[in-house]
Amino acid sequence: MLPTDSALVLFSGGQDSTTCLAWALKHYARVETIGFDYGQRHAVELTVRPTLLQSLRRQSADWNARLGEDHMIDLSLISAISQTAMTHDIAIETQANGLPNTFVPGRNLLFMTVAATVAYRRGLTVLVGGMCETDFSGYPDCRDDTMKALQVALNLGMDTRIKLETPLMWRDKKQTWELAQELGGRALVDLIREGTHTCYLGERGALHDWGYGCGTCPACALRARGYHQFVGAEV
Ligand code: ZN
């Protein structure tokens, strides 16, 4: 058990945040979840969230006892104030600054800040997010330094001692699958494979060995490659 005992997990319904939730359920006595509706083009992630939470409860009596309230927050203002391929019907491409246009400027900063406000009210002392600097598509708000700077800013601005935990920061996708295996065995790997959603295009027709998705968007490509490396290493 880590020194602080309660956590709020940024839970989107994707592979990374579901793995983070399992990680938090192992380490903290009390765990709550927060999700954001920000006008995503495809809200599949949001629709799989409640089912995933129920499935996680069924996987372990211990997790069921630790898992508390789920908070859904409307952040539709993000799609009103930005224009990206995540929130508008435009093709995914690389911008002049080298970042893909799926990058929503300031999104993780806003998510963490809103989560900190909810954590403050709920008396939760740790925020857990799936940010990752290894397979991060170059998003600057996924960087370890960004998160550390934000932790300092939040604690100064709210006079708190909230800790930002990012258990996937230095893991690639293969290692994220390995962490799921470590936390919940094959049952958790299969739940993440079949129950989570990562595809940028919201495709959920065919079940591949690595899960549902179009198979070609950057998120699917990363997920599929990581899964194949994971399975290859296992046999
Ligand atoms: Zn896809």
Automatic annotation (TrEMBL):
HAMAP family: QueC. Zn(2+) binds at residues 199, 214, 217, 220. The gene is queC. Pathway: Purine metabolism; 7-cyano-7-deazaguanine biosynthesis. ATP binds at residues 11-21. Keywords: ATP-binding, Ligase, Metal-binding, Nucleotide-binding, Queuosine biosynthesis, Zinc. Binds 1 zinc ion per subunit. It catalyses: 7-carboxy-7-carbaguanine + NH4(+) + 2 ATP = 7-cyano-7-carbaguanine + 2 AMP + 2 diphosphate + 2 H(+). Pfam families: QueC. Catalyzes the ATP-dependent conversion of 7-carboxy-7-deazaguanine (CDG) to 7-cyano-7-deazaguanine (preQ(0)). PANTHER family: 7-CYANO-7-DEAZAGUANINE SYNTHASE. It is an enzyme of class 6 (ligase). Belongs to the QueC family. Its cofactor is Zn(2+). Its EC number is 6.3.4.20. This is 7-cyano-7-deazaguanine synthase. It comes from the Bacteria.
